[in-house]
Design goal:
Glyas_Bleomycin-R_OHBP_Dase, globular, 31% strand, 2 domains, four-stranded mixed beta sheet, VOC family protein, Glyoxalase_6, 3 helices, Signal recognition particle alu RNA binding heterodimer, srp9/1, 2,3-Dihydroxybiphenyl 1,2-Dioxygenase, domain 1, alpha/beta
Length: 133
């Protein structure tokens, strides 16, 4: 069986204000906005990055969110990144810091209420040490 070469190309979002949401996410990811009509595109901001595409909403926002994305940062930098993203306009929802040995994360919402997480994974040596305690 051949191994798949699938990668994430872009996250596509409908937004009440696509320009404002694209501006928020450009600040989060460090990407530059590309405008195409009434849509906004953020290309990947580096190797392993992902693009984001924002277009006007065509219907009322759903009360539930079927999917969200997890953003990963280096171990020890989650709290600073959460603070940075909140300063950009995100809302802190909750933290999961001790329930799972292999990851800690904070769940936030962007300015239009889309949930996302900022997660950090301990180095392999820390995971081995924490499991023997």
């Amino acid at each position: 069986m051949t191994q798949s070469q699938i990668t994430l190309g872009a996250i596509n979002l409908e937004a009440a204000n696509p320009q404002a949401l694209a501006t928020f996410w450009a600040s989060v990811t460090g990407s530059e906005i590309s405008i195409g009509g009434d849509s906004y595109y953020l290309p990947p901001s580096g190797t392993g990055g992902f693009g984001m595409f924002f277009q006007p909403s065509t219907r009322p926002r759903s009360e539930t969110q079927i999917a969200h994305w997890d953003l990963t940062v280096p171990w020890g930098s989650r709290a600073a990144e959460v603070a940075r993203v909140i300063a950009l306009g995100a809302t802190h929802k909750w933290d999961v810091l001790e329930e799972v040995a292999h990851v800690q994360w904070s769940t936030l919402a962007d300015p239009e209420g889309n949930l996302f997480c900022i997660a950090e994974h301990p180095p392999v040596s820390d995971k081995a040490n924490s499991s023997s305690v």
